[in-house]
Specification:
A hairpin with a 3-residue loop joins strand 4 and strand 5. The chain is of the alpha/beta class and about 300 residues long. The strands form three sheets. Strands 5-4-3-6-7-10-11 form a seven-stranded mixed β-sheet, with helices on both faces. A two-stranded antiparallel ribbon has the order 1-2. The protein has a two-stranded antiparallel sheet with strand order 8-9. It folds into two domains: about 250 residues, von Willebrand factor, type A domain (Rossmann fold, 3-Layer(aba) Sandwich); about 35 residues, no CATH class. Helices cover about 40% and strands about 20% of the residues.
């Protein structure tokens, strides 16, 4: 039976949370076909048109009259960089739901532990309006402990910008990998498409998990309410029925725009709310990753996880 998110996130220890989730996560990760060709030789594979000829084994070709490419050990390893939103809007929770930041951090921590146990490398970037923490992908116990410690830090950023942080990340990359953005995406998205395009143009896989409180989608307010912006602190009085209708229309337009960008760029996009079991979200992102790395289509995979 799935673990209730409220009960799970009441556990203070991040290590215990991840252990409980991994115990219930019975799905392996399909290895990426985006290979590094950078370490020890492993095996041969058949040449296919478009492959880099510098990895062709000419001696084997001379003996067999057939083209073979060398494969290397690094081809079986994934390099995941988690990009986690730590803006103040992520510290929101309605009713008895968990904070979006706790939910997102637990997703990130569980993926990190799960993948590093498989021998993959995982890094972490946190941001609000600018880049904050940057840990490049590695696989070492001390690295994992530092990553988990960072993920237990509260979301105390101010506003949210998807522009500068994603630009900096793209500029810092020297090797191809898998980039996972975890955010509520409650920010203007004008610069989202060009920044994601930069990461994809570098040969990276990209996925997005959008974490929302249920009231981010369906506000639950009295007939007359005062609302406070968590990031700016601004307070305003609203006529609820009128404003909710306008808000939901804007939200649907925003969500459709993000989905269209991801479809166009071949990016895996998953939306979840903080009342959904975390195991279901983790399993879905791993299944979607399998589809991205095995499907001939360049289109992204869109999913929604709910109760």
């Amino acid at each position: 039976m799935p673990i209730d998110p409220k009960s799970l996130l009441a556990i203070q220890s991040m290590e215990l949370r991840t252990r409980m989730l991994i115990d219930g996560l019975q799905l392996g990760l399909h290895r990426s076909r985006d290979h590094g060709f950078s370490v020890e030789f492993s095996e041969y594979r058949n040449y296919t048109p478009g492959d880099d000829l510098k990895h062709l084994d000419w001696k084997v070709m001379a003996r067999t009259d057939r083209p073979y490419l060398k494969r290397f050990e690094a081809e079986t390893n994934l390099r995941l960089q988690i990009i986690l939103d730590q803006s103040r809007s992520m510290s929101f929770a309605s009713g008895d739901h968990p904070l979006k930041s706790d939910y997102a951090a637990t997703l990130a921590a569980t993926l990190a532990v799960f993948l590093m146990k498989q021998g993959d490398q995982v890094g972490l970037t946190t941001f609000d309006t600018t880049l904050d923490t940057y840990l490049p992908p590695r696989n070492h116990p001390a690295h994992l402990q530092r990553l988990l410690n960072e993920l237990q830090s509260p979301a105390e950023g101010e506003g949210t910008s998807l522009d500068e942080p994603l630009l900096r990340i793209a500029q810092m990359q020297r090797r191809r990998g898998f980039f996972l953005l975890i955010s509520d995406l409650l920010a203007p998205i004008e610069q989202l498409e060009p920044r994601l395009s930069m990461l994809r143009a570098q040969g990276n896989e990209v996925a997005i998990i959008r974490v929302l409180d249920p009231t981010d989608i369906q506000p639950d307010l009295d007939d007359s309410s005062q609302l406070q912006d968590l990031e700016s602190g601004k307070v305003m009085s609203v006529h609820v029925k009128k404003e909710i209708d306008a808000y939901q229309q804007r939200y649907q337009q925003h969500e459709a725009s993000v989905q269209a960008i991801c479809d166009d760029k071949g990016i895996d996009y998953l939306t979840t709310t903080t009342d959904a079991p975390l195991e279901a979200v983790l399993r879905q992102i791993l299944i979607n990753h399998q589809k991205l790395t095995t499907a001939p289509s360049s289109k992204g995979v869109h999913s929604k996880v709910s109760l």
